[in-house]
Amino acid sequence: MMSEVGPAKNLAPKSFLDTSVVYKTQLGTSLMKKHLQANVPKAWYINNYVQMEFFRGNVIYWIYLYFESAAEQYETFGDAFKLYSEGFGRQAKNAVAVLTTIEMDGVSFSKSEDKHICREKLQDFIYEMLIEFGESFTDMGTDPTYCTRMKFKLKIPNVAEERVRQLQSFGLHFRDEATCRAKCSISELFTRSAHRAKLDAISGATAEGATNDKLKKIQVAIEKSKEDPDKITCKRCAKMGDAIIALALDSSWKLHTMDTVHQPISSALHLESHTHPSEQALAKA
Amino acid sequence: MVTLQAIMIGNSQGVTLSSSTATSGPDQAKRDSIVSSISSVLDFSPYTIAQSRYSHVAPSKVLLFSSPSITGAQVTPDLGTDASEADVMVLRSGIFSGVDFARPNRHMLAQLPKVKISTQFEPHLRQSSVRRLQTLMTEFQHSIGQPEVAVVREELKDALLETYKQAVVMPETRSFATAISMIQGFLRPHWSTLPQNQIAGITGELTWLDSQRDLSSATLTKFYRDLASVVGSRISPEAPPIEDTDGDEEENDE
Q1: Chain A within 8 Å of B159 (Cβ-Cβ)?
Q2: Of the residues B56, B86, B111, which one is the last residue of a structural domain?
Q3: Contact: B247, A121; criterion CB under 8 Å
Q4: Looking at the structure, do residues B153 and B191 belong to the same domain, yes or no?
Q5: Burial A232-262 (b: 16+ CB within 10 A, else e)
Q6: Which of A160, A163, A217 sits opposite B248 (nearest CB)?
Q7: What is the extent of the structural domain holding B107?
Q8: How confident is the model at residue B32 (pLDDT cuts 50, 70, 90)?
Q9: B242 assigned to some structural domain
Q10: pTM for the complete prediction?
């Protein structure tokens, strides 16, 4: 029954999830998922930028692998998988590593006769992850960069024949960094006083050990960007992604992350944050 | 994609004669070839003539049809209208009266395209598959704690994979394949620990899936949401540590 004076105002900060936590909620171990379910109050909020980072680090590699694996030069799905696992760096390797769970359904990456089924399973995996993403998170509505790489929405089509075309269109749009960069507002972070003051605060932050090394990389990217904001590229934007995510928040939010670099950044911006333990630390606890 | 099929309801015989796309070019030629083959084997003239010859016969026993708007064999109240459409072929009761089925033209039969059972399209594949999976899930549910549980579980896993393989090859059943993939994804990490009430819950969700007219994006999303509410976590790979997602592998960003 509702009180006559109305419900009490909830003063607890809302949960904003950094990309590292988003990844674990989607693809972490059962142990990690249980930890996050228990320690990150719902609703779970993200923004357009976090979504873009998740796609940039995972979904786009799955889409690329889906199309690459169609080539006749790959006798098996595993042949194409190996290329992405070993040929394109750590991000690609991490992204495709989770796909090995597909084999648990009874198909084999190493059998030529299973190649088509593996590709279809990958397509389903992509769309299932998109559904799960949509079910898990709420867009908080603020992305100071107005990143346009996610402008093309990816959603399972009603007509199956449209799936491949949709994935292809998304992949082509997402990789077109020049066009996306021309339409985004990353430059304004360095020209508007409110954002500029926050970036200056981050530039002055300090940390220790490995965290300081990561902070320094962010600070270098910020300083370069200050010199000529119009020359910011998507790659440099990625380098200062943790700072950009923090810029979207104020005291009504609590940032949940697994990245220790958010501690000095949040401290500099007077934000509340919670750094969750790694998989390894959680397993040892 | 248009599937050209003929089904005799009267004696429950069903056969898919072939598949054809579009209505012109090589596909049209292929379809015409199929119709010609049917006519030769069954000893009647091309279907347009057959319709005319037997237009007075009520379509109570033999049935037909295929068009993008028809999802399976249907008895239509207005054969004249339906038959006028490009991809509809009407065979009427009595049309085979002069055919000696005991001695079919074996040569022509051998030339017919590969035969498929008539349940390989929506919603029949979905309905038959759901019934089979529900039966196996019930068996699995009752086998938990029993010595035979592993055998039953493997049979269920095989059935899910087999169903997926069947459904994934045709556009009209592709969404059903996605639904099966969702079930596989939810069950994958939980096979050894599933409580009986969750298995019963999944069986219930299959009933709902079976009751849907079509598997649209919204339907699949709801199915996913309901499975999540029954089973919980979807997938639990032992993912490698992802310490840095910020793209700092390359030092040169310009």
Answers
A1: no
A2: B111
A3: no
A4: yes
A5: bebbbbbbbbbbbbbbbbeeebbbbbbbbbb
A6: A217
A7: 2-111
A8: low
A9: no
A10: 0.74
